[in-house]
Amino acid sequence: FFILMLCLMLPISVLYLQNNRIDNAGLPTSLERQLTVRVVYLYDNELDDFPTHLPPSLRELHLQDNNIRTLPRSALARLPLLEKLHMDDNSVSTVSIEDKAFANNPRLRLLFLSRNHLSSIPSGLPRIADDTFSRLSNLTELSLV
């Protein structure tokens, strides 16, 4: 905890907190005021809920290998610059992704949801335009795994 608090007093752009025993209560609310932080690694911890006190400056968030069950629109709305979200190996189900969950994440380019509890493609995912693949005439393989 002391090291985490010390890190939050320094101007950093990448925060490595993976492979620990951090739960939601272990994330200080002051983290959301760290406006220089662009990337946070919180994978392989003990998070049950999507973290709510993350810096709005985040571009990349690694939350894989936790036990997160929901993707709430309110928490994602606090991350308007988010480009990459890694949610692999959690407990997210199709119905636990709130409707329009990514409505306030226009920069989101990569979303990883592998190895969750999805039974279908959730309706809350960012919309893919009808002509998204129209100019990819040489595309021979597309993986949606």
Automatic annotation (TrEMBL):
Keyword Signal in annotation: yes
GO cellular component terms listed in the entry, alphabetical order: extracellular space
The keyword Repeat is annotated on this UniProt entry: yes
InterPro entries on file: Leu-rich_rpt, Leu-rich_rpt_typical-subtyp, LRR_dom_sf, SLRP
Protein keywords: Leucine-rich repeat, Repeat, Signal
Gene3D superfamilies the UniProt entry points to: Ribonuclease Inhibitor
Domain of life: Eukaryota
Annotated signal peptide: 1-16
Protein name: Opticin
Species classification: Eukaryota, Metazoa, Chordata, Craniata, Vertebrata
